[in-house]
Design brief:
- Its main location: membrane.
- It holds the Pfam family Cyt-b5.
- Belongs to the cytochrome b5 family.
- By secondary structure, the protein is an alpha+beta fold.
- The protein has two domains: 97 residues, Roll (Flavocytochrome B2, Chain A, domain 1), CATH 3.10.120.10; 38 residues.
- It contains six helices and five strands.
- It has a five-stranded mixed β-sheet.
- The longest helix is centred in the last third of the chain and has 34 residues.
- It binds protoporphyrin IX containing FE.
- Protoporphyrin IX containing FE (HEM) binds next to strand 3, helix 3, helix 4 and helix 5.
């Protein structure tokens, strides 16, 4: 990969309005985790097809991108298309695509486990409370 191209201009900041203007195939940008990617030249190469990328052109594709659970290779590939970040959004605590250095997929996994870990606990508390009321007030 051409490192010079991959790393140039990555710290530019864009507003979400600016990104929204790039929604055509001759200039197609998406936002993933508050970072801006110019995927114009990636459309024909995307293993998931060009249609899904066109659908999200100019938009925030974070949720859809996560749903697919892209591989570590895919996340590595993204770096080449990053052109900057969304102005004013703190990405320090969010998932990083690995350009910060260590363990991008590990961070992603941690983020998932926090979400997945809290849900059963809340359901458990809910079931306990409901059982308590049923036992106390129905007999
Ligand atoms: C530069 C950004 C992107 C790169 C480098 C990328 C790369 C890839 C790669 C390598 C795959 C094959 C499976 C894997 O290795 O994970 C894939 C599949 C896929 N991607 Fe992306 N992708 C990007 C952006 C997106 C976005 C923004 C979306 C949705 C809005 C998306 C949706 C999908 C879907 C639906 C598949 C097919 C999954 C399947 O076959 O089950 N991708 N992508």
């Amino acid at each position: 990969m051409d490192k010079t191209t991959a790393n140039s201009g990555q710290d530019r900041e864009f507003t979400r309005d600016e990104v929204r203007d790039h929604n055509e195939t001759d200039s197609l940008w998406v936002i993933v985790e508050s970072k801006v990617y110019d995927i114009t030249h990636f459309l024909g190469e995307h293993p998931g097809g060009r249609d899904i990328l066109r659908e999200y052109g100019g938009m925030d594709a974070t949720n859809r991108f996560r749903e697919v659970e892209h591989s570590a290779d895919a996340i590595e590939m993204m770096k080449a298309y990053k052109i900057g970040r969304v102005v004013g959004e703190d990405i320090a605590t969010q998932w990083d695509d690995g350009d910060g250095g260590d363990g991008s997929t590990q961070q992603l996994a941690e983020q998932y486990s926090i979400t997945v870990g809290w849900l059963p606990m809340l359901i458990g508390i809910g079931v306990t409370l409901i059982s308590y009321y049923v036992i106390n007030y129905s007999f």
